[in-house]
């Protein structure tokens, strides 16, 4: 072996090249592969390997002919600290939810961490996006294929708008799918932790042909400050495979189409048979005869 070989030098060069890639993608929003090759001065295969790493880290999304920036910009880093914990589950949930979206769909995405991960999966596709989330809007702002509508209103500290202005604007729109995240789910329904947010999300549901909830299994069996709606008011829910069998039965019995994202491999997803869906309502009363899904009984 060459005694002058320095393994660290190769690592340093790789890190430096990826830092340049990261900065170029972040500053431009979208960059073509030929432009990356020219500026970085590396082979296409090297560029593609580096992009694989950046995509895995959630900083870029490859599409035909180039790459979009999907990293939060300065000041919009509210989801960065949450990338540990349940983030792997959220990513699989987002991948499955993305498969439900057809090109040229009109979508409403709220400001949750799972919907943000879904937005990352959708960057580069021809869609009409309505959102009350600054981080989500930031992802699509540089995309030539997406039409973006941002809902105005009071800005919450986590970068979402809500309240009367958002509701008024939402009521003038119609979307095919509203995709929402929640803070908790129990037998009575779905919850979030802010009254103005829940009022805004109710307006979102009223403006949508179909409501889809994306939630990891840790959200089940607990409530939060304000109830959004009953279990049967949502047409579909996408969740990871950590969900108990009792909860699967409860959701199916409520008429919700259940899609289970596998966290073990990328095989075919599980899906429950679709049951008839009750008309939307904002009832707060839960059926008292059902057993507690959180108990596993």
Describe this structure in words.
This protein has 297 residues and is an alpha/beta fold. It has two domains: 7-69, Winged helix-like DNA-binding domain superfamily/Winged helix DNA-binding domain (Arc Repressor Mutant, subunit A, Orthogonal Bundle); 80-287 and 290-294, Rossmann fold, CATH 3.40.50. 34% of the residues lie in helices and 21% in strands. It contains nine helices and 16 strands. The chain has helices at 7-28, 33-40, 44-56, 87-99, 113-122, 134-140, 164-170, 195-206, 245-253, and strands at 30-32, 60-63, 66-69, 106-109, 128-131, 147-150, 154-155, 161-162, 175-180, 184-186, 189-192, 208-214, 226-229, 236-240, 257-261, 270-271. Strands 6-5-4-9-12-14-15-16 form an eight-stranded mixed beta sheet, sandwiched between helices. The chain has a three-stranded antiparallel beta sheet with strand order 1-3-2. The longest helix is centred in the first third of the chain and has 22 residues, at 7-28. The radius of gyration is 21 Å and the shape is globular. The relative contact order is 0.10. The model is unreliable at 273-297 (pLDDT under 50).
Task: Report the CATH topology name of the largest domain.
Answer: Rossmann fold
C-alpha end-to-end distance: 64 Å
Strand order, largest beta sheet? 6-5-4-9-12-14-15-16
Category from helices, strands and their pairing: alpha/beta
Give the class-level CATH name of the largest domain. Alpha Beta
The CATH architecture of the largest domain: 3-Layer(aba) Sandwich
Q: From N to C, what is the helix and strand string?
A: HEHHEEHEHEHEEEHEEEHEEEHEE
Quickly count the domains.
2
Radius of gyration based on Cα positions: 21 Å
- Compute the average pLDDT: 82
Q: Estimate what percentage of residues fall within beta strands.
A: 15-25%
Total number of β-strand segments?
16
């Amino acid at each position: 072996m060459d005694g002058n070989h320095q393994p660290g030098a190769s690592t340093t060069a790789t890190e430096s090249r990826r830092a340049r890639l990261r900065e170029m993608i972040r500053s431009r929003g979208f960059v073509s592969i030929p432009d990356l090759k020219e500026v970085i001065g590396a082979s296409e295969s090297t560029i593609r390997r580096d992009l694989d790493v950046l995509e895995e880290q959630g900083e870029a999304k490859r599409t035909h002919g180039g790459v979009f920036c999907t990293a939060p910009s300065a000041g919009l880093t509210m989801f960065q600290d949450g990338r540990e914990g349940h983030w792997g589950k959220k990513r699989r949930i987002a991948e499955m939810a993305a498969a439900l979206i057809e090109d040229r769909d009109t979508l409403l995405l709220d400001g949750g961490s799972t919907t943000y991960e879904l937005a990352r999966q959708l960057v580069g596709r021809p869609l009409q996006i309505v959102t009350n989330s600054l981080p989500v809007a930031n992802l699509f702002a540089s995309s030539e294929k997406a039409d973006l509508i941002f809902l105005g209103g009071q800005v919450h500290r986590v970068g979402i708008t809500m309240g009367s202005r958002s509701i008024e604007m939402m009521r003038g729109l119609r979307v095919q799918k509203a995709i929402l995240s929640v803070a908790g789910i129990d037998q009575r329904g779905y919850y979030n932790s802010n009254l103005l947010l829940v009022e805004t999300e109710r307006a979102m549901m009223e403006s949508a042909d179909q409501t889809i909830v994306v939630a990891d299994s840790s959200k089940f069996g607990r409530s939060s400050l304000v109830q959004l709606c009953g279990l049967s008011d949502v047409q579909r829910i996408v969740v990871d495979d950590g969900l108990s069998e009792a909860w699967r039965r409860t959701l199916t019995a409520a008429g919700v189409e259940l899609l289970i994202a596998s966290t073990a491999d990328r095989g075919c997803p599980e899906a429950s048979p679709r049951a008839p869906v009750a008309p939307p309502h904002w009832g707060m009363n839960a059926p008292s005869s059902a057993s507690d899904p959180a108990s596993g009984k």
